[in-house]
Here is the input.
Amino acid sequence: MKKFLYCLLFLGVSLHVADFNSLTRSNRDKQLASLFSESIHLGIGSEKLWSATSADNWGFVRQSATWARGNSGIIDSLILALKNAGYFNNSAPRNDVLTNVNLSGFGSATLTIKISTPTAGISSTAYTGTKTFNHFFEIKKTGASIPSLQLFFDDPNTTLGNDGALVYYRLVDFGNPSFANVGDVITESYTGNDSIYGTKFQTYTWRNGPENTSWISKHGRVVLTEVDSGRQLCFRSVVRLTFTKLKAVNPSGATSLDNLKTACNTAQGTGSSDQIYYALAYMQKFDSPFQTTAKATFTMSATRPETICNLSVATVPGAQLSYGIFNINGYVTDQLAAAAVPADYPSPTVGGSDFMSVDEAFNRTYVAFGASISGQAALGTVKQYETTSKAFLDAFDGSDQNLTFK
Here is the structure.
């Protein structure tokens, strides 16, 4: 569907591309407004990552795939809009600043477009050091002091074999009712390629989530890897939640949440901590019916237990979530032993030459940068973009860790 929409967008504007540079300022701005309004709406999507309306143990699985598909289009759609506007018709450097451009659902904006004009010293949460990107695009509300979106990229045709693409955006600025109450949350997404396994990866990292019904977490990271020669998606994520905020958005569950908080703190020796971390890994087939095998847990400590907060299954039968299976219709069942997962679903325990099993993906979740994972010597130590440890997320309380507009 996304490719079909892109084709429609291209057909609608391609007749005007060749004449873009000869348009008057008024007509040029109208065309840009149309292109970028459409690309933003296509790219950001309308799905919340995990809202309180589905805050059960597996709500994150059901919504995360849709959310990731919607948000993954933002880089593609913005670059496509630039291409359709004629910015890559030749290799000549461009540095355009367009003011008072009216974007649908956004309002009056200043657009800054730098083509073949390298921007150096760009840092990110997803890689160490800095990178230099060949091209840059920015949207800023008229009169605002900070941008609403920044995109850095090397090549309009691919994110592979170069420095990739990096985007920052504030969802609240883009007029989508689904994100009207997400506050000051800033999302960073980086796309690149990995030489160890898979064909490409994409990260989503956010901080300062409002912890309300629209955006239930404070900080979090999602790591997506396209693997198995493009036949499967490997999804890994950790989000930080608090019991206090969970009770505020789900008052009817306050007693159960209080009981769980007490049990978790006792089992993991974390005193009276209010923070709890949700770690999830799943493998999903790209072909319909999108069969998915998932493994998840909750923890309050720096370790990742097999059961919720390392609670005994004998005492708390529901403490063992994994494995859960899903398909195009959503949740199928959970608490399956590995041998009980149907053979046509991604394997919990057996990976391949360029993809991990669900267990391997789970073992590489809630981990620190540079950590060595048992049984995964061929994959090397944990890379910066895979970092999802408690310490990494907690550090956002006092530092932006490079997750900020440039």
